[in-house]
Design a protein that fits this description.
By secondary structure, this protein is α+β, with helices and mostly antiparallel strands. Helices cover about 35% and strands about 30% of the residues. The chain has a five-stranded mixed beta sheet. It is globular. It starts with 13 loop residues before the first strand and ends with a helix.
Amino acid sequence: MVAEDDPQPQKIPLIFFRTRAGSEPVREWLKELPEAERQAIGKDLLRAQWHWPVGMPLCRPMGSGLWEVRTDLPTKRTARVLLCLYRKHLVALHGFIKKTRTTPDEDLALARRRKKELEE
C-alpha cells in the first residue's frame, strides 16, 4: 500500500539530440540496427527514464554530466547510449556498438561536443 503523500514515480522524457541541420544521429543509428537490438536498447532507455537517477549496472556516470546507458544485446554485442540531463529531459547524445573494454575517447568527445552545442 502506498501512502497518500508518497510521490508517484515520474517518467523523465527522453529526447534525441538534434543537430543544427535537423538530423537526429542517435535515432538514425537506432533505425539501422536489427529489430531485436533496437528493442533491447529501447527497453533499457525506458528503464532509465522511469528510475532516474539509475546506477550500475544499467547506467554509469562518465563525468561532465554525461551518463552511459549500458545494453547487452541479444546478438552478444554491447551497445552504449551516452546521454545527459537537460531541462528535466534525458537527451540521447550519441549511440554506438562498443568494441573495446573502455569507452573510446572519440565517442566521449563527440557526446561532450553535442552536450555543449545543446547548452549554447
